Amino acid sequence: AVMRFGFGTRHTQALVLFICLTVAYTMRAQLSVSMVAITGHAVTESELCSNVSTSENTSCVTEEISAWSVYRTYNWNKSTQEMILFAFFVGYTTMMIPMGIIAQKFGGKFPISVALFVNGVVSIISPWIPLFVSP
C-alpha cells in the first residue's frame, strides 16, 4: 500500500465542517449581541450635557440634535428581550431532533447547507424584522 501525505479529502471535509460550525455558533451568539445594540435606553439631557466646558462658543447636545442615527433602536423592556431570546433558543433546540432525523436519512451535507442558508438569510434581514413584527 502506498502511503500518501498531504491535504486529503478528509482534511477538506473537516475544514468545511469546522467553518460551518464556527459560522453556526457565531450566528447563535449574534442575537444576544445585537439585542443589546438595538435596544436603546432613554438618555436624559443631563447625561448628554455632562462634561461641558465654560467657553462661550460651546453648546449642549440635546436629544433632538442627537436623535438622528444610522442605527434604529427600540425601547423594548427586559421581558420583551427575554421573550425574543427564549423564542430563538426554543426554536434552536427543537429543530435539532428533526434535523438529526433528516441528517440520518439524507446525510450531513443537505441539512448543514439548508441550515446555514436559512441562518444567513435571516441574519441579513434581521435589522428589518423588528420594523414589521415589533411587539
UniProtKB/TrEMBL annotation:
Membrane-spanning segments: 83-103, 110-129
SUPFAM superfamilies in the cross-refs: MFS general substrate transporter (SSF103473)
Location of the protein in the cell: Membrane
GO molecular function, one term: transmembrane transporter activity
UniProt KW keywords: Membrane, Signal, Transmembrane, Transmembrane helix
GO CC annotation terms, alphabetical: membrane
GO process terms (BP): monoatomic anion transport
Signal peptide from the UniProt entry: 1-29
Top-level taxon of origin: Eukaryota
Bilayer topology term: Multi-pass membrane protein
Record protein name field: Inorganic phosphate cotransporter
Naturally occurring in which organism (per UniProt): Bombyx mandarina (Wild silk moth)
